[in-house]
Amino acid sequence: MKPSPSVQVTFDQLKDAVSHSTDFVMKSMDFAHCKYGLFYLETMVDSEVFQDHIVRPISLRPDLAVKEVVTIRVMKESDDIQEAIAAIVKGQTVLQKEGETTLYLLGTEQKKERAINIPTNERVLRGPHEAFIENLDTNINMIRKNIASPDLVVTYFIIGSVSRTRIAVIHMKGIANPDVNNVIEQRLQNIDIDIAEAPGFIQEYIQETKFSLFPQLLTTERVDRARAYLMEGKVVILAEGAPEVTILPVSFWSFFQSPDDYQISWWIGSVFRLLRILCFFIGLGLPGLYVSLVSFQTYVLPLTVALTIQGALKYITLQPVIEVIVMLFALEVLREATVRLANPIGQAISVVGGIVIGTAVVQSNLVSNTAVIVASITGLASFIIPSYEMSSSVRLINLIITLFSALFGLVGLVFSFFCLTIYLCRMNTMGLPYFYPSLVDSDVLDTIIRAPIWRLKRRPKEAAPVNKQRFRNSRR
Q1: What does the radius of gyration of the chain's CA atoms come to, in whole angstroms?
Q2: What is the pTM of this model?
Q3: In what side-by-side order are the strands of the sheet with 218-220?
Q4: What residue spans define the domains of the chain?
Q5: How far, in Å, are 275, 339, 394, 417 from residue 282 at the CA level?
Q6: Residues 359-392 pLDDT 10s
């Protein structure tokens, strides 16, 4: 819809569009030979920028063209009322000169953001202590400072018919696979929703499998981690209002990697990575192994161990599978309470709750000491995984494996892992296998172990990069 040449008529049109909101105002500036109208939401504009760069310059030189007078960085001409409305609700000021239909959209948004701080969800042992914040432009600025290359490509999208959330897709030209990038951009363009809560909504709309037991996208708040994955040929998605970024495509092994692995000695980093993978299997199978051995195959254990466990279970009221599930449930309740409450209170509840519940259930002969130990080790093993999504998946899937073990013993345990392996092998992310790269040849150098940096000459295959060579021989 075209604006009217009359400033007052344009104001009435805009006021109707914003539902006669009280904070929408018009500032009229009348001069001898001309008249200006400024339309804006007074709760959204920066008053200093508004006065110093718009009102004062026009007052000093009202006869000159708007482009020559207004000293503001962001300025755009428009002859569409709908575009002006979208600019106003974002905090911009719309300027119109009486008798003209051209609207000037001026960037006067009030920008309030928190300072760049250290990552809170991903602890930094060594390396940069910078974390993303809720401002999209600041996040892109941090990435560009870390990758000062003209090949860093940023593409913007608007998602949400009501929220109009800005989304940025970043990739490295010449490294990232253009086919993968096109698939990601196409899925973003197909999103039709009124409000986009990032990154959760975005992830569920673009991931390969709608109903997946394991995470298919990696989320991080660390700038150095996003930079490292960009240089490997992956794509990073940022959203306005989200202090985390989404990285894709990723493989199963990406969820066990940490930026700290590359800041320490290669063999220490390899030991820590192997420890995380081992804890993944412990978190999945330890409760089921305990239930199957105690309920069915006790003869597999050494005699002294079997007698000790049987003696501990002699006066226990609950069945082994029930006591394990009860302890895992109590562990999840304590974890959720610790996360949701304030930090000092949460720490106190986690310590006191663990001691009280553990002591009470053992002394009341509801749960054996062995079940408490199994549940504790299972919880610790899941917490060591760097990815919160993968850790949560482990804690939920181990309940299914425990039930199969309670029904069929060790056969059920082995069958559960067999089905889980088949499921993982069949999964894809952005058309690439979830278990890619394989554990043969040079692919194993940065999957289950972390080889020396000078051995990692080629980029990982999981993102199918166009430029596979990372560097030449650096230790001549």
Answers
A1: 29
A2: 0.84
A3: 152-159, 165-172, 235-239, 245-248, 218-220
A4: 7-106, 136-250, 264-429
A5: 10, 23, 10, 12
A6: 777 777 788 888 888 988 998 899 899 888 899 8
